[in-house]
Amino acid sequence: MKKKLLFVESNTTGTGMLALKKAVSWGLTPIFLCNKPERYLGLEETGSEVIVCDTNSIEALKQTIEANVAIEEICGFATTSEFYLEAVATLATDYGLPGNPPEAMRTARNKSLTRQALDQAGVGQPRFAIVKGQSDLEQALASVPVPCVVKPADDSGSNDVLLCNTLEEVEQHTLKILAVTTNMRGQATAQTVLIEEYVDAPEYSVEMFTWEGKTTCIGITEKSLTGFPYFVESRHIFPAKLAPEVEAEIRATVSKALAAVGVKNGATHTELKLTEEGAKIIEINARLAGGMIPELIRLATGVDMLEQQIRCSVDGPKDLVVAYQGHAGIKFIMAPEEGVLREISGVETAQNSAGVQQVIVTGKPGQAVQPPQNAYHRLGSIIVKGDTYEETTTALDTALEKIGVVLEAAVVKN
């Protein structure tokens, strides 16, 4: 019987380790392939078999798998890490198991390829230019003038995404990105920069599942970002409060975008801006949403996104019937100024506030903190559930007001 589910790395939040535990609870045997087990807090408690190998090499992965696992016992391949989507797709394809086409994952991971695919399909998106060297800059800025967004084509977590207001800023940030040759997982970067039109409009994300080419929309998330020049997500509300005709347009645009990229199986998290000209795709992530959005969906609908994503690696999602039961929201705890963290105060008081489901603190005493430039600079979060959109947003604001970021020489309220 096929019972071994092979995971290639994971994200470093609780979601990744939870995925392993879920596999165990279904009677499967998760095998976790990774290059640094120490990266994963709680890995030893998941009940999975851990095999250390070079996960950045397909050939090394195949050699490790064939030396340690009976191929006929493998039921699927999975990952909760953005950086290993293409590797998992390649393995699933090579071993004849459910998954996405590797070229689709390559296109989704490299935002410059995504832009080209959407352009060919006529999907709404910002104007853009692709830069692979300093010599491309002049032509790029002729088609996308400042202010513009400059970002790496293949990173994650809003890392190195910057709004640039001058030609000098564009050049400096472009050269900074081009100089990065490996990412945080030791993989070679695309060394490609996207210069994009800055779209000043409300942002949303669309959470979908695709199985054998058929797509189901779970819902739309309202997203809020920090102030300029960085674009770090500060709040999510699910489901978003939208007119039915607007929601229909957003869903249709995203479905067309996923078809253009070639997504066939699994979860997708597509970010867009809602403009007067219609929805414009910002990026397609061929994975579950981050930022605890899956937990908001579970609270508001009962749908377990992580469970469904794992099932997409084996035999497909089950019972994707979405019935909204109120709203859920999250606000992130952030340092409003630079300093050394002494503590996060008011956690218990916030936890006891109306509607609060969970308060998570990730900041550690003695840690150097700053106003966030990417998702990794956030210090924690508060999750609430409410019967209405208004009740949810009020509960979030009330709870966050009780939290203080205590620096070595100051106390700063969120």
TrEMBL record:
<dbReference type="InterPro" id="IPR040570">
    <property type="entry name" value="LAL_C2"/>
</dbReference>
<dbReference type="Pfam" id="PF13535">
    <property type="entry name" value="ATP-grasp_4"/>
</dbReference>
<dbReference type="InterPro" id="IPR052032">
    <property type="entry name" value="ATP-dep_AA_Ligase"/>
</dbReference>
<dbReference type="InterPro" id="IPR011761">
    <property type="entry name" value="ATP-grasp"/>
</dbReference>
<dbReference type="GO" id="GO:0005524">
    <property type="term" value="F:ATP binding"/>
</dbReference>
<keyword id="KW-0547">Nucleotide-binding</keyword>
<protein>
    <recommendedName>
        <fullName>ATP-grasp domain-containing protein</fullName>
    </recommendedName>
</protein>
<dbReference type="GO" id="GO:0016874">
    <property type="term" value="F:ligase activity"/>
</dbReference>
<dbReference type="GO" id="GO:0046872">
    <property type="term" value="F:metal ion binding"/>
</dbReference>
<feature type="domain" description="ATP-grasp">
    <location>
        <begin position="115"/>
        <end position="314"/>
    </location>
</feature>
<dbReference type="Pfam" id="PF18603">
    <property type="entry name" value="LAL_C2"/>
</dbReference>
<keyword id="KW-0436">Ligase</keyword>
<keyword id="KW-0067">ATP-binding</keyword>
